Fold:
Amino acid sequence: MHAGDTGVERRARLAASRLYLVFPEVGDPSARGDPSAGADPSARAARQLPDLARSAVAGGVDIVQLREKHLPDDELVAIAKAMRALCKRIGALLIVNDRPLVAREAGADGVHVGQQDMPVAETRELVGPDMLIGLSTHAPLQIDAPQAAQADYIGVGPVHATPTKPGRPAVGLELVRYAAHNARKPFFAIGGLHGGNLAEVLDAGARRVVVLRAIADAQDPQAAARELRELLDARPLDA
Structure:
């Protein structure tokens, strides 16, 4: 195991993390109809994701997530291994969404699962004690559930409706307030967040957030990340 890869070290870095970026899906079938995108998701990932990661981390992102619902495991492992090597160089944690075996094979820092995915306890058996596990939550009962306490962090949302989660209703700021008072692990607010609405989420008690489009779709991802980070840093973790 390399330096920085122990569970203690990863959890210490997680505790200090504020800004978390989910990468856009390179394997999304809708992107394959775009002539500029190219037909090969692996080639598209090699072109797009490293530059986005470097810019985002330079702007203040602590954690990045690969979320690919359409790629086969072998393709995703190859992409994740390349991104893991890059993330080690630039100082970011790498999380793989929904696929613990891919995360383990790629040597990622963690895996994120949803309420309908593999339970946290089973995920822990697969990935071992040193990998971070995140869990999505959408209601107070899920925040209070034993499964949430078994995770290393939870996502709380979607605060606002988002095309990343079509059909899932927004939970609003009330769930953020609930998490701020009741979550037993670090929580990240997620869902439709950007510089224009971040203050209200911070006012509700969030101190960590997950974004996608606010950085990935920006003309200058580094500047977009920096704007968000400055807003976050104005609200200390212990405040």
Notes: The longest strand covers residues 132-137. The chain has one domain: 7-233. The chain has eleven helices and eight strands.
